[in-house]
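Posting this for the archive.
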Amino acid sequence: MEHSEFEKSKIFIIVELIEYVPNSVVIKTILKKTTGNISVASFDTGEVMTEKISPFDTFIQVIEGTAEVVIDDKSNLLETGQSIIIPSHSRNIIKANVRFKMLSTIIKSGYD
């Protein structure tokens, strides 16, 4: 995962920041602070992000393709432009039935 931030005060197109890599999930950090972070990710077809539980809400926006976001065993299909908030302390898995790109934002506001 890339840990350096992108150049500030410079225009960019999020979907172009990251490429698909065969048989991989690629994650690049756009902004990382102690109070939260913003990342962009690309998933090749068939890839799955390991199940996790975060102490913070996570905002997911699909910027290309279709993603399956499973929250506490409930499947949600998100298409380009759609978003979902994964609640804190919820089990979640992100799956690529087809390849897609997403933006992920976490704001660390304390344990709710």
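The domain at 21-107 is CATH 2.60.120.10 (Jelly Rolls). Strands lie at 25-33, 36-43, 48-53, 58-71, 74-79, 83-86, 91-95, 100-107.
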